[in-house]
């Protein structure tokens, strides 16, 4: 374990060093600040905006868990996750196609329409899961009451 | 003065500690956000990143070859596969990276934030790993759609940061190895599935898998013919372009709309013993050959096509320079751009499948595909398949 850890850390530092060397030798110094700003902004946007939103959604899901049933809420969350990821990978194409490109063979999809369809499916799956699960919860509640 | 700073920092810590504790409690979700989930997702993310790194390195080696390392020309679809994999695993890395970060997010609020010098260094290396990973994936996606909003060059930055990422990843694995090994030696009190706040551990991994699979399914059709019917979200589409083939750069973008169709166009082949100009009629008069070869772009899209023209070996022989032993220098009519001049190592120049193509899919080459003549060779990135040829120089 000690040897493996030492090797991994030493190799990692070597690779990191080579990467830093490439940044310093292959990239003009005028570009360094832009790279640092992008890396810093990526951390801030993730840790300060994106992750808190996801945590908030999770807390909201927990609040309605007992009313709608654990299963339904979990499926709805999964569907939301798929929708969010597909949106994230399509936003660049969506924005870039509004900016225009002199090459007619790039950005040939209808990305707005595609995302609309994705979200229709995602929301339909989530709604169906929540409804089914809510019905099961109600039935169980009634069964305990009449017992 | 020292007493004042001490008291002030104690006051700040007093206020911050419960805040950080509250954030950690809100963000935590054991056993879903646990070392075990992190190891499971991290392993998949590690595979995706290593695939991206290896295929990216291969792509850079093809574009900037090392003199002592000959690159393979077979199988002809090799680059199509490696670069397709590069973009596909980069796309799959989006949900995997976000999921990986989600499982460790509560640790951001650990208290005290720094325990020792070693701990400070470890947290700094994680900041580098997280920031660079997010930037690599983001600028990769932006490059696919040619949206250059970032204030630096894509190619050099994506390459340099890839080394930083893999290095920081190896350091991270070294630091966390005891945790990983503990998860691998499954404790009996750690069942494979367990419920968290709402999702179970398997439910979470399944949802992330579904997100990664749907992202790949809806984009990989620009590379994988079998998935073409599902291609709804990728920037390119198979069959869409002049002569049914996409293009990376149009004649107008390259500034060759006039020079490419000039009636006095000739292809100059310069050899150590002299030089010969070939008109388009001269090229048509040479023996013609056909090859089925893919155009495989660095941006990950690819498509196979049928090319017809003069074999490079036949052209060089006609110019009196059979069997080159040094890279050919190939020039385009295109004046600007990093790939206006390219080099072709001898193993490609002497390959019987390498053509100076005059026709594509049964018709005269469209000007956006490189009319009057272009290079097409097996196993090379699209940017090296020089269009609008002007001059080929044999140095040895």
TrEMBL record, chain A:
Q: Which organism is it from?
A: Agromyces tropicus
Report keywords, A-Z: Membrane, Transmembrane, Transmembrane helix
Span-the-membrane segments of this chain are 35-61, 73-96, 108-130
Q: What is this protein called?
A: Uncharacterized protein
Automatic annotation (TrEMBL), chain B:
Taxonomic lineage of the native organism:
Bacteria, Bacillati, Actinomycetota, Actinomycetes, Micrococcales
Annotated TM spans: 40-61, 81-105, 126-149, 161-184, 204-228
According to the entry, every stretch annotated as the Oxidoreductase molybdopterin-binding domain falls at: 262-395
* Keywords, ordered alphabetically: Membrane, Transmembrane, Transmembrane helix
Source organism per entry reads Agromyces tropicus
One Pfam family matching this protein: Oxidored_molyb
Q: Name it.
A: Molybdopterin-dependent oxidoreductase
């Amino acid at each position: 374990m000690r040897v493996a850890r030492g090797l991994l850390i030493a190799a990692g530092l070597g690779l990191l060093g080579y990467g830093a060397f490439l940044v310093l030798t292959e990239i003009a110094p005028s570009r360094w600040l832009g790279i640092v700003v992008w890396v810093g902004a990526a951390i801030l946007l993730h840790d300060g905006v994106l992750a808190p939103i996801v945590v908030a959604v999770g807390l909201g899901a927990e609040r309605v868990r007992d009313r709608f049933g654990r299963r339904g809420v979990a499926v709805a969350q999964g569907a939301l996750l798929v929708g969010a990821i597909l949106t994230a990978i399509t936003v660049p194409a969506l924005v870039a196609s509004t900016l225009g490109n002199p090459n007619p063979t790039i950005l040939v999809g209808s990305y707005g329409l595609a995302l609309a369809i994705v979200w229709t499916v995602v929301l339909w799956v989530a709604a169906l899961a929540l409804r089914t699960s809510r019905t099961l919860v109600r039935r169980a509640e009634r069964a305990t009451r009449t017992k | 003065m020292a007493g004042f700073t001490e008291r002030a920092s104690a006051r700040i810590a007093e206020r911050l500690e419960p805040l950080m504790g509250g954030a950690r409690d809100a963000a935590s979700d054991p056993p879903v956000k646990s070392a075990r989930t992190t190891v499971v997702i991290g392993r998949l993310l590690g595979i995706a990143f290593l695939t991206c790194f290896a295929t990216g390195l291969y792509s850079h080696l093809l574009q900037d070859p090392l003199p002592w390392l000959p690159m393979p020309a077979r199988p002809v679809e090799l680059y199509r596969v490696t670069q397709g994999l590069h973009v596909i695993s980069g796309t799959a890395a989006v949900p995997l990276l976000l999921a990986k970060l989600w499982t460790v997010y509560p640790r951001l609020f650990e208290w005290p934030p720094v325990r020792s010098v070693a701990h400070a260094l470890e947290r700094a290396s994680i900041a580098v790993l997280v920031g660079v990973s997010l930037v690599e994936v983001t600028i990769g996606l932006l490059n696919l759609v040619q949206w250059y909003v970032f204030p630096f060059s894509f190619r050099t930055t994506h390459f340099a940061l890839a080394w930083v990422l893999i290095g920081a990843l190896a350091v991270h694995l070294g630091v966390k190895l005891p945790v990983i090994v503990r998860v691998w030696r499954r404790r009996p009190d750690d069942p494979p599935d367990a419920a968290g706040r709402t999702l179970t551990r398997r439910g979470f991994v399944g949802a992330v898998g579904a997100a990664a699979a749907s992202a790949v399914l809806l984009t990989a059709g620009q590379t994988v013919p079998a998935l073409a019917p599902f291609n709804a979200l990728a920037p390119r589409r198979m069959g869409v372009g002049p002569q049914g083939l996409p293009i990376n750069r149009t004649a107008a973008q390259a500034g060759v709309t006039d020079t490419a169709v000039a009636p006095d166009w000739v292809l100059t082949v310069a050899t150590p013993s002299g030089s010969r100009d070939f008109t388009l009629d001269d090229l048509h008069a040479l023996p013609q050959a056909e090859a089925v070869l893919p155009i495989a772009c660095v941006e990950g899209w690819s498509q196979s096509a049928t090319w017809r023209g003069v074999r490079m070996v036949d052209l060089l022989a006609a110019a009196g320079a059979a069997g080159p032993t040094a890279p050919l220098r190939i020039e385009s009519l295109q004046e600007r751009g990093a790939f206006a001049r390219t080099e072709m190592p001898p193993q490609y120049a002497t390959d019987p499948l390498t053509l100076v193509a005059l026709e594509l899919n049964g018709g005269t080459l469209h000007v956006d595909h490189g009319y009057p003549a272009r290079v097409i060779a097996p196993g090379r990135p699209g940017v090296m398949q020089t269009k609008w040829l002007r001059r080929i120089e044999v140095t040895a």
